[in-house]
Amino acid sequence: MRNCPKCNREISYKDKYNCIYANSKNTNCMSCNATGKTHNIETIEKIRNKNKTKTVSQQTKDKLSKLNSGKKLPSETKLKIKKSLIGNKRMLGKHHTIDTKQKISNSLKGKMCGVKNPMFGKIGPNKGKRLSEEIRKKIAMSKTGKKASLETKRKFKELYLKRKIKCGTLYFPSYNETACLYFDWLNKWMGWKGQFATNGGEFMVGNYFVDYYEPFLNIVIEYDEKHHFKDGKLKEKDIIRMNFIKESLQCKFFRYNESNSILQEY
User: Fold this and answer.
1) 80 in a structural domain
2) Cβ(211)–Cβ(179) under 8 Å?
3) Containing H/E element for 106?
4) Contact 2, 22 (CB under 8 A)
5) Among 37, 54, 71, which residue terminates a domain?
């Protein structure tokens, strides 16, 4: 063994002859030799393709976990990492696959719950603080002219409802009693077992609650009052809602018009 003349790190060799040769040439360690050098695109691609097929065993993962357990990066290293990530666009425009998202989700389950969360029982550093006028103006300017699409609004509402249900906060959408009487009559007349507001509660699809759903026949019926129409035509938001429900359930979709008492398939 010998020490690197540049960083004084210990270097081990397979045999004494290699060590004698390195000593005579006064060579540096591999880390010092690589400092400031970068691989060309072809070499990077070769390394990437070679590492794609490699898998780390669970035993190796456990060893690395034990080795790094309790270790903290020095502030200098943290600063270097932070600087290296500025302007990093490797994932710009790219998205994780569903499989990768599921793996990330499974790996994080239970790790940040309750007492395991580092902020459990603590008050956040920004609690009670007001944003400065300058920051408020910046946030306002960044959002000026932007409008969330109907699809984005639908996703937000879906997440909100799921969170409410998960927390045990029951959510009861408003309903039309006349519509319920019609659906009750329809069940008796057709011999169906449809679900609606006063019979099992409205069935939830995404962020929507359908007026009537027959699960065995996969039939959805929407009860349309006058406010669902504009200039004699069905409103755009109702069409978007209908298309989403049809696509999600792959069901037969009917609409009952309260004005003319016509049940029509769409």
Assistant:
1) no
2) yes
3) helix 98-108
4) yes
5) 54
Q: Which residues contact 242 (CB under 8 A, 6 or more apart)?
A: 222, 253, 255, 266
Q: What is the C-alpha separation between 15 and 30, in angstroms, rounded?
A: 17
Q: Which two tokens stand for residue 62?
A: 């456990």
E strand residue ranges, the chain? 2-3, 10-11, 203-205, 208-210, 212-214, 219-224, 229-230, 233-234, 252-257, 262-265
CA gap 194, 213 in Å, rounded: 5
- List own/partner pairs for 132-135 with CB under 8 A and 24 or more apart: none
Q: The domain that contains 235 carries what CATH number?
A: 3.40.960
The answer to whether 225 touches 245, Cβ cutoff 8 Å, is no
Q: What is the pTM of this model?
A: 0.47
The 10s digit of each residue's pLDDT in 131-168 is 888 888 888 888 888 888 877 888 888 888 777 777 76
* Domain interval for residue 247: 177-265
* Any domain includes 152: no
Side chain identity, residue 141: M
Domain assignment of residue 46, yes or no: yes
Tens of pLDDT along 243-265?
A: 999 998 999 999 999 888 888 88
Q: CB-based contacts of 7: which residues, under 8 Å, 6+ apart?
A: 28, 29, 31, 32
